[in-house]
Amino acid sequence: MSPRGKRIADTDGAFSEIRAEGERAVLRMFREFGGKRKLHFALGAIATIFARAMELVPAYVLAVAIDSLFFDEQAFAIVGVPTAWLPTEPEQQLLLAAALLAGAHVSGALLSWVNSWAWNHFAQHFQHEVRVETYEAMQHRHMGFFDNKQTGEIMSILNNDVNQLEQFLTHTLNRAIRIVVRTGGMASVMLIVNWRLGIVPTIVIPAIAYASYKFVVVIHPKYRAVRAAVGELNSRLENSIGGIQVVKSFTNEPFEADRVEGSSENYLRKQWEAIRIRIVFRPTIKVLTAIGYVATFVIGGWWVMFGSPHPFFQGTLTAGTLVMFLNYSRRFMNPLRDFGEVLNDYQYAEAAGERIVGLLDSEPAIADRADARELEDVEGGVEYRDVWFGYETADGEGETVLRDVSFTARSGQMIGLVGSTGAGKSTLVKLLLRMYDVDSGSVTIDGHDVRDVTLESLRASIGYVSQEPYLFHGTIRENIAYASRAPSDRDVERAARTAGAHEFIETFPDGYETVVGERGVKLSGGQRQRISIARAVLKDPDVIVLDEATSHVDNETEAIIQDNLQDLIEDRTSFVIAHRLSTVRDADTILVLDEGEVVERGTHDELLEENGLYATLWEVHVGELEGIPETFAERSTGTQPTDRE
Ligand SMILES: Nc1ncnc2c1ncn2[C@@H]1O[C@H](COP(=O)(O)OP(=O)(O)OP(=O)(O)O)[C@@H](O)[C@H]1O
C-alpha cells in the first residue's frame, strides 16, 4: 500500500527502490518539463472547455425552436440575449436558430482542432524531453543497478512510463475536462431551467460515478495479471527466439512450442477474466442511464400531456424543454462512464511519474565527488591495497568476491592475472575502472584513489577490452571508431592492423563498411575480439586492460596480435587476464587468484620454481599433465574430487 493511502493502480515492485515519494510526481514533472510550454497547455485547456460548452448549444436551440417556432407556445427568447436584439419575423428567427446551430458545430470543430493541436504539441515535446533526460540519468547509474535488472524492465521506464505520462496529458486530462464541463454543464442547465425535473436524470449521476469507480477497483488486479502474463509471454518469446540456435541444435522445437503455448494460454486466461468483467460494465451503465432517461420521459411526458404528475412538480413544462432534457440526460452519461478510467489513468501516471522522478532525483552510487580532480599526465602506477569486495545483490546479500587483495603495478609494467574460473580476475580489473567501488581498502592510480578523480578522466585513461566484446549494430569502421570522436581512416586502419583485424576485414567485400549485425552476430568470436582490441588501441590509453581479449583466436593469430601489441604495451601499464597461460608468460608479475585471494605472485620462472598452483596449471597447459591434480580441482570447483586416472 502506498504511503499516500489507497492505490488502485500500478504498484510494480521492480523499481520500488527508486520510486520517489512525497510530492505528487505528475505535478512535479508537469512543472519541470511542461513549464516551457505552459501556453500551449493553457490554450489546449481553454479550447477544450469551450469546445465542450459548444456541445450544450444544439439541444437548447432545438428546445427554443420547438416551443417558439414550430408550436408557438412561447415568445422567441434566447438566454442572455436582450429581446430587443432578436428578430421578430418567424423566418428570420428560424434563420437565426439555424445560424446558432451551425455556429455551435463549426466553432466546436475548430476548438477541438485547436485543443488537439495545442495539447499534442505539449504532450509530444514533454515526453521527448522526459525520455531524453531519464535516459541520461539512467546511464549514469552504477553497474550494480544494471546487474540486478533485466533490460526489458529498464526499457519499460523509458517507453511505457513515459508513454503513460503522455497518454495522461493528451487523453485523460481531456476526458476529465469533458466530465466536468459536459456533465456539469448539462446538469446545471437542466437544474436552472427546471430544477424539479432536473433532479430526475441527475439523481443517477452518483450511482454511475460509483459504479464506474468500483469497476476500476475490481478490474485493476485483473489488468495487472494481464500485464504480468504479457511480460512473461514476451520474455518466453524473447528467450526462445534469441536462443534459436540452441533450440535447433537440441531439436527442442516441440518443447519450446509447448512452453510458448503454455505462456500464451496463461495470457488468454488472464485476459478472459478481465474481459468478463469489462463486458458487464457497459451494460450496467446503460441500464443506469436508461433508468434516468425513461424516468425523465415518463414524468416529463405526463407533465407535458396532462399537467403536473405530482404536487412536487410545479408549474408548466413545454415540449421543447422536455426534448432538451431527454437529449441531455442521454448524453451526459457517456463522459461519466469514463470517470473511473480517469481515476485509474491518473494513478498509473502517478506510478510512472514516481519511477521517473525517482530516477531523475537519485544520486548514482558511483559518481564524482564534489572535490574530484582530473586525472592528468597519467604515468600508470597502480596499487591495490587491502581490497575487499562483494557484489551487491537484489536482496542485499552479496558474497565476498575479492579478499584482502594487495599488489603494486609500477608504471609500464605488465600484470598477468590467472586463476580458475570465477576466482575474481574480471572483478579485480573492474574496480580499477570504478565500475564498482571497493567495500574496503583502496585502488589508486598514480597515487590517487580512483574515488577521488573524475570518472571521465579515469576511464579516459584506461583502455578496456572486456571478456565479451560488445559490438554495436553498424559497420566495422563505426565500431572501431567508437573509441574516438572522429578518427581518420588511417588511424582506424592502423588500430585494426595492430589488433590483427585488418587482414580479415580486407577479405570482406565491403571491407570496413561491413555491417556487423546485432551484437556483431555476423562475425566470428575471434573477429569480434580483434575489433574490440582495435577499438581500445585507437583510444591510445595510458593503462590497458585485456580481459581474455584473445581467448577466441587461434595460437598463431594470438602470437601475431601479441607481437603487434608489444609496442602498445611496452610503455604503458597493462593488465592481462588469460586462461591460456602463454599469453601472460612475459608479464612482469603474474598474480594467481584463487577464490578471490592472491595465492601466488611472481614472474613466470619464479612461479614455476615455487611449484604451486601456477606450476601445475602450466604443466597442464603445455601438456605435461593430462589433468589438474585433485587437490587443485577440488579447490577451484568447490566440489569433492572424483576418481581420476
Ligand atoms: N555482476 C555480478 N553480480 C554478482 N556476482 C558477480 C557478478 N560478476 C561476477 N560475479 C561473481 O563474482 C565471482 C567472480 O567473478 P569474475 O567474473 O570476477 O571471475 P573471473 O575470475 O573473471 O572468472 P572467468 O575466468 O570465468 O572469467 C563469481 O563467483 C561470479 O559469479
From TrEMBL:
GO terms for cellular component: membrane. It is found in: Membrane. Residues 42-347 form the ABC transmembrane type-1 domain. Its main location: membrane. The chain crosses the membrane at residues 39-66, 94-114, 176-193, 199-219, 285-305. It is a multi-pass membrane protein. It comes from the Archaea. Residues 382-620 form the ABC transporter domain. Keywords: ATP-binding, Membrane, Nucleotide-binding, Transmembrane, Transmembrane helix, Transport. GO terms for molecular function: ABC-type transporter activity; ATP binding; ATP hydrolysis activity. SMART domains: AAA (SM00382). This is ABC transporter ATP-binding protein. It comes from Natrarchaeobius chitinivorans.
